Input
Amino acid sequence: MERKSFFRLALHLLWGFLIVVILLLFFRERLGDIPGLVRRLRRDPQALVSVFKPRDMAGFGFSPADPDHQAAWRTSGTRLEAVDGLWGEDETWWRVTYRPTGSPGLLLLDETMGVMDWRGAESLSFTVYNPQTWQVHLKVKVKDTAGNDFQRGIDLPPLTRTAVAIPTRDLADRLDLGRVGYLNLFLWRPSSVTDLYLVDLGFPAPGRPLAPAGPVKFMGLRFPSTVRPGERVEAAFYFIAQRELGDDHTLLIRLRRGEEIFLLSQTDPPTPTSRWRPGRLAKVGPFEVGVPPGLDPGRYGLEVILARSVPSPRGVELIFQTFDNPEIDGHRVAEIIVTDSPEM
Output
């Protein structure tokens, strides 16, 4: 009798072992998800249903105005907060404050978002504004659940709104895009507190156009191509607002050569930008601008900038509007020759 009981027990153990082996073989590709599953279940027991099916991110975009979307991100040496749009538009941005630590970052993890499927997306894209007066080097790091990683650095010019798009085909050579579990937007050893503003962060699907880089298109100018130091010249500038701007902007006219910047004029448009009608041509000028005396002869870039004054922890700052002109590099709209020749 005892032998029969022992035989039944051994048979049951053998069947149990075989079932465990079969389950391990079936779920071997998903074993890397188990630590994230445990963490997620502690936070949200209802998450069990969606763990083994990666979340399709094609067409998904994060809204800074949605507290649930903000809760999906983790901060490491950073602070994340939703703020009003810097350009007077009816929108919300995220302000990410990076502290001067080793590698402060803003992270999207499998334990907060779940394992993600990026295969149907055309790119990882976002718009970032750098309010510093110096260039910031932002690093983007992506990893799949197997630990394979992709990293790319992006130079963010000062006082500039930059549209970033990393095609998923670039990541596919390094990662399993069907099982992404980590995204980090970080800085490497920043020397001081650094703020970056983010919006339009998401995964556009193929054929879906990205949002325009800016709500104003620069249409042209009247400005002499050659000037002399100390003289005054007549200038006019033309714009089309793509949508209502909301707040008023100041017009800055500058000359730039390398890192040297020379302000020619700072003026408020006669018709405030808040009253510019979308789709209608807006003209500023003609008015006189002064070329600084003692300017060295040579070639300079002429910069035309619409800037909005906004309060910040460091005082009032000028936020530069980005033109919806892919052909314009920053705000440089023309090349000007400065000559000391008396004859033009």
